[in-house]
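Hi U.,

Before I forget, here's the chain from the pilot set. I'm dumping it here mostly so it's searchable later in email.
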Amino acid sequence: MSDTDLVTPYREYFQVLYADTDELRRRAYQLRYQVYCQELGWESPDRFPDGLEKDEFDDASLHCILIHRPSGLDAGTVRLVTTRPDSPEPCLPLTAHYDSRQYNSEHSPLMVPKGMYGEISRLALTERFRRRPGERNTPDGGPDVFQWTQTDRRRFPHIALGLYLAAATVGLSHGLSAVYAMMEPRLARHLHYGGIFFEQIGEVVEFHGARAPFYLSRSMLFEHLGAPLRALLDAIAEDLGIGLNDP
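Structure:
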């Protein structure tokens, strides 16, 4: 993918917004309700009578929304759950719901000082953007969105990738040294092919499919990120009004 232009189709089709107002955060929660409660059925609508899918981690999170430019529709959302040195335990969805005995790396969140990391979480794409066969049953569209093909060069099929990079960009801008994510191992492999080297730090568990905890440091991101993805990262940072510097 060394000569792949990701920025031109991204600029044509999408824009990432930093959800830094009550109204934008409300749109993110509404989109999550649509995906997790109505489309996938992973959460009970009865828990959210106001139509806003929220949890105890949202107040400590930074949220992004992906806009589809041609239609003006909200296509997806993601959050970065942040930590502070005085954050209570459990401070991340990962530490709340994953058995700590299953970590097998020195990079587990139990070994890293709070305030230095966050968790990419609650990534969701609406059904019309989970459009390929087999993708409709996963909120991020499945790992095939990370396949790089020349026939896709004039489109931007890697929609979830834009949200992963948006969350990483927000974390970098806040000085975090690392981010975590629970994801399918095969999704991590496809990210690896694209130059984003998440490290698996624990055993696979069953949660709406096979998932495991992964770790990505600031240095790991910039060390392996190829030119097309670095250009896309910079374009997303520009949308978010964020300046980035290499470590």
